[in-house]
Write a structure and sequence with these properties.
The structure is a single chain. This protein is of the alpha/beta class. Helix content is about 40%, strand content about 15%. The chain has 12 helices and 16 strands. The strands form 4 sheets. A 7-stranded mixed beta sheet has the order 6-5-4-7-10-15-16, with helices on both faces. Strands 11-8-9-14 form a 4-stranded mixed beta sheet, with helices on one face. Strands 1-2-3 form a 3-stranded antiparallel beta sheet, covered by helices on one side. It is globular. The relative contact order is 0.11. The C terminus is likely disordered. The structure holds 5-S-methyl-1-O-phosphono-5-thio-D-ribulose. The site of 5-S-methyl-1-O-phosphono-5-thio-D-ribulose (MRU) has 17 residues, from helix 2 and strand 9.
Length: about 400
């Protein structure tokens, strides 16, 4: 299984995901500026993976700045954090990881370390973030497997796989967990216009692992659901607001609406580093707008007229009410999300009460699921829309 971010001595190596599946080329980043550029240009992409890269970017800045005095050293680290955080605004993992490595520098300095030792602590912290992400994804897979019936046909959008993380993946981690549990699973991969993460990356990654995958265009998902050919949906996330609203790759919202229309469970798999308590709901999530050329060209070939006006929001927000359950490394989390996601972060009591209030509001506006047009699996009846228990792992009893 591929790990797209490698720590190599005193530099960072990134698998250039722009070139997949045609070629496997690795890019070496020796300073923070080259990490910023790699994140902006999508050499490395996927919320947890850009978090790991950003952490390493701060550590590289710390190393480069460690020859100066303490003030210059701190300034170099702060400047790198600002540049990395600005590189892509939506995925919260990026800012979380960059600030965590900067905090490791501060702690080292406060404990009397010289800049060189503080820089070494930064590199160790970045490695720790990488290791934690890999471990979290394997736990997500172990928990998420419970949601996947044997023989399931699972739709996913974008690439929330090994390529988008330190390894193993979140949504594809759930798939890998189910496969490791001996289940037969077929993945239906949305191509994911405009950047084609599904066609280029998910299809390639699953093929590498010998997991059956069927590629469709985004516009085919609804038809397959209506024909009873999708049993459940699992996607990743770039940021999950405190109330459970989810920012993920553009097109995710459409899939969630379709899943609700057909009574198909819609699961979101993400590490707790993607949970953002400081963002109350989806309206406060910054949505990155990317260059028009991603829409007007495919593989460098122009497909739209010159001068055309283009919109290219890279992410959308799926309201919490459309999410059947979240899977994190801590377990499976059901509504009311303000409470159960807070619990996943170890926050209880007063936050829990706030969560109940938000959930009560949300329940009033939650539409009843429409009966499934599909025949088949009993997974279709698990829409999770009605005040389900907080089923952190251990309590979880999934019935198919
Ligand atoms: O623009 P990208 O390719 O970085 O977007 C990635 C996604 O939206 C993923 O679904 C998300 O980051 C989850 S990755 C585990």
């Amino acid at each position: 299984m591929i790990e797209p971010v490698r720590f190599a001595g005193d530099s960072l190596e990134l698998l250039d995901q722009r070139l997949l599946p045609a070629e496997e080329t690795w890019i070496t980043c020796s300073d923070a500026a080259s990490v910023v550029e790699a994140i902006k240009t999508m050499v490395v992409r996927g919320a947890p993976a850009i978090g790991v890269a950003a952490g390493a970017g701060v550590a590289l800045a710390a190393r480069a700045g460690s020859g100066g005095g303490p003030d210059a050293f701190r300034a170099a680290v702060a400047e790198a954090v600002d540049a990395l955080v600005a590189a892509r605004p939506t995925a919260v993992n990026l800012a979380w990881a960059a600030r965590r490595v900067a905090a490791a520098v501060d702690t080292a300095l406060e404990n009397g370390a010289l800049p060189g030792d503080a820089a070494a602590a930064a590199w160790a912290e970045a490695l720790e973030i990488r290791d934690e992400d890999l471990a979290a994804n394997k736990d997500i897979g172990r928990h998420g497997s419970m949601l996947v019936p044997d023989g399931a046909r699972v739709l996913t959008h974008c690439n929330a796989g090994a390529l988008a993380t330190a390894g193993y993946g979140t949504a594809l981690g759930v798939i890998r967990g189910a496969v490791e549990d001996g289940k037969k699973v077929t993945v239906i991969a949305d191509e994911t216009r405009p950047f084609l993460q599904g066609a280029r990356l998910t299809a390639w990654e699953l093929q590498q692992d010998g997991i059956p995958v069927v590629l469709i265009t985004d516009s085919m998902a609804g038809a397959l659901m209506a024909r009873g050919e999708i049993d459940l949906v699992v996607v990743g996330a770039d940021r999950i607001a405190a109330n459970g609203d989810v920012a993920n790759k553009i097109g995710t919202y459409s899939v969630a609406v379709l899943a609700r229309r057909h009574g198909i469970p819609f699961y979101v798999a993400a590490p707790t580093s993607t949970l953002d308590r400081d963002t109350p709901d989806g309206r406060a999530i910054p949505i990155e707008e990317r260059d028009a050329s991603e829409v007007t060209t495919i593989g460098g070939v122009r497909i739209a007229p010159e001068g055309i006006t283009v919109r290219n929001p890279a992410f959308d927000v799926t309201p919490a009410e459309l999410v059947t359950a979240f899977v994190t490394e801590k377990g499976i989390h059901r509504p009311p999300y303000a409470r159960t996601l807070a619990r996943a972060l170890g926050i209880v009591e007063d936050e829990a009460q706030a969560g109940d209030a938000v959930a009560a509001e949300g329940a009033a506006s939650t539409p009843a699921p429409v009966a499934s047009a599909s025949s088949s699996t009993s997974a279709n009846v698990d829409d999770g829309s009605e005040g389900a228990e907080d089923a952190d792992i251990g309590d979880e009893q999934e019935m198919f």
